[in-house]
Fold this protein.
Amino acid sequence: MSQHRQAALVLFTGIAMALSACATGPELDTTIQESERGAVYMERIHDRSFHAAHPIALSADIMARILRGVIVKDTRGPLANLIAAKSETVRAFGDEEIAYLAPLLAEGLTKAAPDQQVGFRVAHVGALNSPQSSGISFCSSSVRFPGACTSEQPLLTEGSLYAYGRSLYLTLTEYRRRLETGETVNKANQRIANPTGLANRTVSFVPESAKRPDSYRTARSTDATLVIDYDLLATLPAVPEMRPAAAQPPASAKGEPPQRDADLDLLRKELQDIKRKLAEQEAERTRSIPKP
C-alpha cells in the first residue's frame, strides 16, 4: 500500500510540474545581451521530446534578411488604419531594430543547445511626426498636435526562434505593444500565452518562395509562426525595400499616391472647408449686427 501511495505521489508531482511548465512557458537560461534597446537570451524548452538543430551557424547578414522579410498585414480596414497612422502592410522590424537583433540572434543560435530556443525583445522609440511638421499627428492612442507622440512609452516587440531540420521557426509573441507607464523594456521574462498586438493582423514573409508550406508547422507553431528555408533565402535576390512600421511615409510617386496619403489629403481638405465655412459664418454674423 505504501508503494502505491509513493508511486501516486511521484505521478502527481510529475503532472504538477508539467502543468506548471505549460503555464509559465520556456525558462530563461542565459542572457546574451540586455540593454535599454532590448534583450536576446536563451530559453529552456520544457518539452523533453523536442530536439532543435542547435547549435547552428547563420551569418548576421542572413539573420538580417530573415528579420527584414517579416511583414505584418493589418486587416482592420482603411478607416482604422487611417486613425492608427499605419499602412496595411509593413515590415515588423525597422532598420535600427534589425541592426541590433541580427548579430545577437545569430550568436544565440551558435550557442543554443538542442533543448533551447533563442528569445528576444526589442523596443521601438520614435515620433510619428517631427516637431517641425505641420498638420494633425495621428498617434496610436488619440489625435494629437505635431511632436506630441515623442513622450509616449516605447513599443515592444517580442518573440523567439529556433532551428529544426533545415528550417528556421520564428514566432512573434508581442508586436508593437506600448509599454505602460512605469514599465520598462527590461521587464521580468514571462512568456505570453496569447500574442499581444497581433489582433486583426497576420504575419507573413517575403519572398514568399522562401517560406515553408504549412506541412512544416509543428505543435509548437502558432498563427504568428513563420517557417523559413534559410538556405534557399540565401540564394534569392533581395526583395524591394518595404517601409518599416511606424516610419515616415515616402514621397508619393507622381500620379500614384498611396491610399493613406490620399485619405490624409482628403481629411485636410475637409478640415480646411470647415474652417472656411466657420469664418464665413462669423463674418456674416458680424455684418448682421447693427452698428451703434
